[in-house]
Specification:
Strand order of the largest sheet: 1-2
Structural class: mainly alpha
CATH architecture of the domain at 62-135: Orthogonal Bundle
Largest sheet: 2 strands, parallel
Order of helices and strands: HHHHHHEHHHE
Oligomer: single chain
CATH topology of the domain at 62-135: DNA polymerase, domain 1
Helix content: 55-70%
Radius of gyration: 25 Å
C-alpha cells in the first residue's frame, strides 16, 4: 500500500468518525430538547423532586386542561363553563357532573389533579368506581359519547363517528362491524375488541 493510499484511508476514516459524532451530538440535542419540553410541561425542574406538578382544576386555563388525558378542547371548555357557573369545584366528584365527563374519566384524571376537599375514602371510592366503569364491557349500540371515549384509542372524534355510523346504518350486528366506521382501523379495533360488546 502506498503512502498516498494510507493518507486517503486515514482521511476517510477521520471523516466517517466526525460524521458519526455530528449525528450523535445532533440526536442528543434533539432528544434533550424534547425531554426538556416534556419536563417543563410536567413541572419537573433540576434539583427538585422528580414529580410532575398537579393541576388545580379551579384555576387551570384551557391550554392546561387539554393536556390532561382524555380531555380535548370540547371537554376543557365544558370544565371551564361549569366552573364559571358554580364558582369552583369543591370535590373531584363534582368534575363528573361536567357534560361529557364521567366517573371513569375523573378516575383517569385523578393522578394529575390537586385534591380539592376529598378525603382518602372519596378518592378510593372514585378510583374503584372508575375502574369498574373501565373494566366492564361497553355496548357499542347504546354507549354515549362519554362512555365511548373511555375506550383506549377512542377520542371525541372517533366516538362521534361511531354514533353517526350507528344512527345512519343502525345497530352493530357484531363487534368487528365497528371497523366499518371510517375513523376505526384494525389497530384501534385490536385495542378495544375485548372491551366492547354488542347487545
Amino acid at each position: 500500500m502506498t503512502r498516498k493510499s494510507k493518507v486517503t484511508i486515514i482521511v476517510l476514516d477521520s471523516s466517517l468518525v466526525i460524521g458519526i459524532l455530528v449525528l450523535v451530538v445532533n440526536n442528543l440535542m434533539q432528544t434533550s430538547q424534547k425531554g426538556k419540553e416534556l419536563q417543563e410541561w410536567m413541572g419537573i425542574t433540576e434539583g427538585k423532586n422528580e414529580e410532575f406538578k398537579k393541576v388545580n382544576i379551579n384555576t387551570a386555563d384551557i391550554e392546561t386542561l387539554v393536556k390532561l388525558p382524555g380531555i380535548g378542547p370540547v371537554k376543557a371548555q365544558s370544565i371551564i363553563d361549569y366552573r364559571e357557573k358554580i364558582g369552583k369545584f369543591e370535590s373531584l366528584y363534582e368534575i363528573a357532573k361536567v357534560k361529557g365527563i364521567g366517573k371513569a374519566t375523573v378516575a383517569k384524571l385523578e393522578p394529575y389533579l390537586k385534591i380539592i376537599g376529598d378525603s382518602a375514602e372519596v378518592k378510593s371510592s372514585l378510583r374503584s368506581e372508575g375502574a369498574k366503569a373501565i373494566t366492564s364491557k361497553i355496548n357499542i349500540n347504546t354507549a354515549s359519547l362519554n362512555e365511548l371515549t373511555i375506550l383506549p384509542g377512542i377520542g371525541e372524534k372517533k366516538a362521534q363517528a361511531i354514533i353517526k355510523y350507528r344512527e345512519g346504518v343502525g345497530n352493530f350486528k357484531s363487534k368487528d362491524e365497528i371497523k366499518n366506521v371510517k375513523e376505526i382501523g384494525n389497530g384501534v379495533y385490536k385495542k378495544i375488541k375485548r372491551k366492547i360488546e354488542v347487545k
